[in-house]
Amino acid sequence: MQNANQGIAQELDGQFLHIGIVQARFNEDVTNALAAACIQELEALGVSHIDHVTVPGALEVPLALQAMAERAEYDALIALGCIVRGETYHFELVANESGAGVSRIGLDYNLPIANAILTTENMEQAVARQTDKGRDAARVAVEMAMLMEDLSGDAADILDDELTEGQA
Asked: What mean pLDDT comes out for the span 86-108?
């Protein structure tokens, strides 16, 4: 939603993060612009360890994300793609299945995934969103990676406290 109030995020620092990007090539002009904006924003946030792979289309994105997640070396992943509505049901199939796959990988691997697979009515809408959504994906990935690190640190502190209390 354009002009939505996204709230104020914490200060983002990605200098110690390892981020993976999976980019669908279908509608490549748009996905290349998404990727360029995303990588530029990641670098502006201090991320220097970025792996970027491409796949044929949005339906292949979840499988590549899963392969990256299985490597257990990423702090967050980013999904980039562009699905434009056509005259058939295929749009809904690709949009729904790719979105569900991206979400499932994140939940299965407890790994933040910023989903910037655009789903638009026409190419004009996609072009209008390509730069902002690429930047947004980078910011989401860094913010969620930082949050997950904080939450896992909090969980470790709680476990340490419980173990200490049990020994007393």
From this structure: 93
| Total-model pTM | 0.87
Compute CA distances 155 → 55, 78, 150, 162, whole Å. Answer: 36, 25, 9, 11
CA within 13 Å, CB half, 27: 25
Is 49 a catalytic site residue? no
For 44-71, what is each residue's pLDDT tens digit?
999 999 999 999 999 999 999 999 999 9
Cα–Cα distance for residue pair 83/117, rounded to 1 Å: 7
18-24/49-55 β-pairing: parallel
- Give the three-state DSSP class for 59: helix
CA distance 53 to 68: 10
Indicate which residue of 18, 49, 52, 90 is catalytic.
Answer: 90
Amino acid at 119: T
